[in-house]
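Practice problem 4.
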């Protein structure tokens, strides 16, 4: 069979009377799962009846949704939504529903993509992740001031000897200055 695309480069899928689907681009028989994967990948396709050449994309996509909903996973279409949708058939507003649903889904997709991007960015070196990292480091530095010091110090903070109050105050001031330096470096 000859590879076919419509004028817009959309892959043509032929559906035969035996319910088999033929992808004219890959010259192979495919399943509804293949069409679902193509949809998820953003591939445009058109399903036509092999005998009459009628466009049956709508009914095939509806069939994919029915199979997905029946797989036992959590259904995406709540019963109440389905009832409301069915009730809209024959209603004077029926002609407006497809456009409304399409616009709503597109808005949802944009919001979903923005949310996903923000969440992924927060954990992948974004300014938010870097800010959270700095805040955590500053918190650790600040809390370390309240932890008891070991007997031997690291040399950055003068050891507190059992001397006068002036010596203890001087040591605490030096430690605070050291902590302030660390906080300032982290904030940069």
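Answer key:
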């Amino acid at each position: 069979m000859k590879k076919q695309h419509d004028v817009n480069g959309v892959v043509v899928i032929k559906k035969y009377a035996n319910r088999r689907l033929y992808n004219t681009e890959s010259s192979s028989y495919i399943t509804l799962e293949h069409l679902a994967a193509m949809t998820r990948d953003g591939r445009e396709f058109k399903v036509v009846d092999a005998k009459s050449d009628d466009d049956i994309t709508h009914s095939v996509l509806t069939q994919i949704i029915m199979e997905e909903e029946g797989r036992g996973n959590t259904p995406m279409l709540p019963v109440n939504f389905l009832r409301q949708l069915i009730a809209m058939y024959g209603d004077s507003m029926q002609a407006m529903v497809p456009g409304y649903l399409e616009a709503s889904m597109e808005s949802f997709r944009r919001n979903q993509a923005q949310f996903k991007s923000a969440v992924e960015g927060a954990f992948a070196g974004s300014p938010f992740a870097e800010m959270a990292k700095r805040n955590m480091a500053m918190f650790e530095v600040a809390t370390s001031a309240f932890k008891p010091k070991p007997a031997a110090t690291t040399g950055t903070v003068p050891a507190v000897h059992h001397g006068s109050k002036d010596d203890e105050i001087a040591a605490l001031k030096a430690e605070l200055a050291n902590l302030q330096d660390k906080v300032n470096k982290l904030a940069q």
